[in-house]
Please model this.
Amino acid sequence: MKGEIIAIGDELTSGRIFNTTSGFAARHLFDAGYEIYAMHTIGDTPELIGEALRRAINRVDFVIVTGGLGTTDDDLTNEAVSVALNRPTMPNLEILSQIRSHLNKISGNPVSPLEKLAWLPKGAEALNPKSRMAGYQLVHDSKPVFFLPGIPSQMEHLMLEYVLPRLTIWYSDPTREVRQKMLRVFNMNEIDVNEKIAALKLDHSVKIGYYPVFPELHITLTTRGKNSDECDILITQTANAITSSLGNVIYGQNQETLEIIVGRLLTEKKMTIAVAESCTGGLVSHRLTKVPGSSAYYLGGVTSYANSMKSRFLGIKTELLQKHGAVSKEIAEAMAKGILASSGADLSLSITGIAGPDGGTAEKPIGTVYMGLAAADKTYVQLHHFEGTREQIQEISAGTGLDMVRRYLLNLI
Amino acid sequence: MKGEIIAIGDELTSGRIFNTTSGFAARHLFDAGYEIYAMHTIGDTPELIGEALRRAINRVDFVIVTGGLGTTDDDLTNEAVSVALNRPTMPNLEILSQIRSHLNKISGNPVSPLEKLAWLPKGAEALNPKSRMAGYQLVHDSKPVFFLPGIPSQMEHLMLEYVLPRLTIWYSDPTREVRQKMLRVFNMNEIDVNEKIAALKLDHSVKIGYYPVFPELHITLTTRGKNSDECDILITQTANAITSSLGNVIYGQNQETLEIIVGRLLTEKKMTIAVAESCTGGLVSHRLTKVPGSSAYYLGGVTSYANSMKSRFLGIKTELLQKHGAVSKEIAEAMAKGILASSGADLSLSITGIAGPDGGTAEKPIGTVYMGLAAADKTYVQLHHFEGTREQIQEISAGTGLDMVRRYLLNLI
Model:
């Protein structure tokens, strides 16, 4: 089964916004066993939209169109579809009544440009009329055509929740199986990982992909076959072989982030954590608290950017700061011990370093980062030298700190 | 002058690799005053490559093709070009002799798959025959067609060093100018902004685009013309008219983020800030410290997730927490006052709320967020009701907090 993807928007053809939705759709369609014949990106020009759509419907089995479904004057997709496929727009009554009752509630004024969202080409079936997301399906020349918003979060949601399940039913093929697994690596580079995996001489029917997602590396394993059990066994065997070879640089699988893994380990061990950050400026706390339910193990943190904050909140003596400087083994240790004591947590992490672009010296260049980890019985300090922009040094420092906590909880430190 | 961009490769249509080269080309072409009619991504299929190429040459003034120029079996671009444009491949003698002398030096064996790089469609002019980068130009139907490698670093180098300069000469048009400006909006939705702008009856030669980038809205103004000064005046007049109409919901222009604007205002007023966060879990501190030089005005923050942290670090009495609950006007105020006093900053921001997915009640549903702002002489508290996922509520809360600081510093509160 072949499909085409058409992304619409002047912001894309001017290069101002990167088109991420087409790649997202392509990856998920590929994983589900479909082939992408072509992907197109065009501006907000109705004739061009119509032409691309008609050509796609003629040559492939399904089409996905993203963008141009909003309420503003530059949203022209429905108009273009209406003309190209000879389907006059008409109001979808369910969406219209949703909009009117929403408007009534918030403003008492039941007339608004929002109503544009309800006017769809004839035959359109809204994907989720109860939500505030635009998005519908047409069947034209017996082929399904999906129209999705250009906003990545909405597009991705509708793609996963509606488009893929509907395509599966439409083109059900019980003999096509596809399995994919992702292994998440922290602290080993692509070349070393590639070399170790190449030495394993793995079954060629599992396709291996390497995706550096700074500062991590994600390895994907993909296999296709007629037999579901065989696919499962093949993927599991391959994942096991790679895991044996790479060891504990693999920290998680699929959607498991470092903060999810750390949260799970803390929960299992019934431990709480607190954080004292300097150069990462709250990023470790932000990542930990992204996880739903993190309040069960994360007590809180201090972002002690100024030295006065280090003294006041972490009890660090001014003399110690003057003697060693804020970026030092001694201060990292004192920060970790300080937040452990004042928070009452079971475990603490501290990070102090120089993220740049200013503040580097010959002795302590930009990228010098100390990390401390304190528990009731022991304290650890590590020195790292990172490279990159300010944001990259902040990102890799936060990741390395979370990985240090993971390693401590797994007795790997 | 209009162009099309064709990217070739199965790794792109499977979504395994993100296509970044087309966006790169589009941005630079747009900035140089060209218009992109369409961008296509297709797999390693010669018929499809040929068809896309012929169609593009027919309808636009220049074409850029990337990918499929390498030495492996799946590199099929030259073969496809040869057939589609009826130009038999023949060896480029300069490239061939380069390859042979290189091979002689490294292996003594002058026959290799590398020689495939020298066989180009008739009429091809190598862009940089002395380099090891593939890449050439054809002139077909009097239009320039550029073929570039798919490897982003090589493609980008050849694009900047050869394609753009050659296009400038080919279509030399000293009268073509393009200007763009972006206005960044916080706290006004797309529909209201659109309505206000539509009512202005602006000059139609400035194209207006609306891009929601959660939780913000970005408005782009683009104009093209023959006269550089006229373009500048037109863009400035339009931006001024929109700014007069929308007022202070426009917080910045182009690349100015909220944290950059807040940092600039604090620097101008020689003020320092400290932050006490609960439901945003460090995100405000993280955003403030993304800005280089933020240590000059950001003293630090406390992420007081657990109530014990609110007491210990912010001096909030247990009775107050028990009486009003952590998510309340009183606690938001106490947090802001607490961090102001303990940090010694001139200004403080506090955020306490329910980000979900658990913790909501009938009285205080998920999305209930209180924000406090304290200065030496005055304290402000705001109540917000946000909607969305945990991450969205955290994002919009952090943005609203930063905007509250901006408004205070501009005397808009």
